[in-house]
Structure formats: C-alpha cells, structure tokens
Amino acid sequence: MNLSKYRLNEKLLTIFDHLTDEQKIEKAIQKYPVKDVKNIFTYYELEQHTYAKKLLLKKYRNSPHDLYYCAREVICGRWPEVEPIIMTSLECIYRYSRYIIRGRWLEAEPIIMTNAEYIYYYSRDIIKGRWPEAEPIIMASPRYAYIYAYLIIKGRWLEAEPTIMNDSYFWQLYKSHFKF
User: Fold this and answer.
1) Residues 119-160: tens digit of each pLDDT
2) How far is CA 95 from CA 40, 102, 133, 140, 149, in A?
3) CA quadruple 14, 20, 24, 26: dihedral, nearest 10
4) Please, how many CA atoms are within 13 Å of residue 75, restricted to the half-sphere of its CB?
5) Which of 179, 169, 112 is nearest to 146 (CA)?
C-alpha cells in the first residue's frame, strides 16, 4: 500500500497495527495533530467510527474552529452533534455552510444576520444573490452596504444610499461605480 499519500511512515504504522480500532482512535487523537489524525483515520477507515466522533468532540468541545476542521477534514461531512458549538463562531458558521453543507444553513442564519460582513459573504457565496431578510442589517454599515450594492445587487441601492453617504470614502466609490 502506498503510505506516502497518507503521509504516514512505517514506524508510525507499527505503533498502530497491533491496536484495536478504539485504541487507534484514542492514540491518534491524544498524540497527533488533527492533520495527522485525518491521515491515520483515512488509512484505517475510521472516519465514521462513532467512538472517533465522541473523542474528537470531547477533545475539541471548546473550539468551534477545531470542530469545524474535524467535520471538514476528518469526518468529511455534516456532524450534527457539534453544530451548536460551531454556531458560536460567525466564521465557522460561514465555512460550515459553504464547505460542508454547501448551501444554506437555515438554523444558523439568525446568527449570521447579526453581522454585516458575514451577511455579505453568506449572500455572495452561499445564497449567491440578494438576501432581503438581512438587508436592513447590512444597510447599517456604509462599507458593506456599498460592497453589497456593487457586488450582489450590481446596481444602485437607493434605500442604503443615506447610510453609504455617511462615509466619504465609500460614498465616492459608490458614486464612481454607478456613475452619478
């Protein structure tokens, strides 16, 4: 078997070969960084093992970023047990929606709608267009109202113009892009 594609070496495998699946999971999670855990799990086909998910959750329960990474790189898909923890980070909500769910995450949208920057990212990359329910929030930020108008609406956003006017830099950009 080609070990190089898993970035594993013979010495490492001699440590794991004689262990049960549960012991392999425990040793990998305790002693190795997440990137190596992914390779060990893939080599031994342990990605969907219930015990693996339980130990990963236990180790990273206070880190939405690490749990997102585990869902993406180790579990390779949705992981409902950690979604409430992932929802504590706007960045992780956005990434989980984009790279794992690959679409809208309706349960997390109320949290995204608290931040103009992530409303813009979510509109651009997940909804791929306007998000009318979030427009009142993004409209409060001159910067993101301008960016949203320019890159999402692709035209003037009359309702947001009073807000954009409050920032001379973005107002000048807005006027120059929409030629008025």
Assistant:
1) 999 999 999 999 999 999 999 999 999 999 999 999 999 999
2) 24, 9, 21, 24, 23
3) -140
4) 25
5) 169
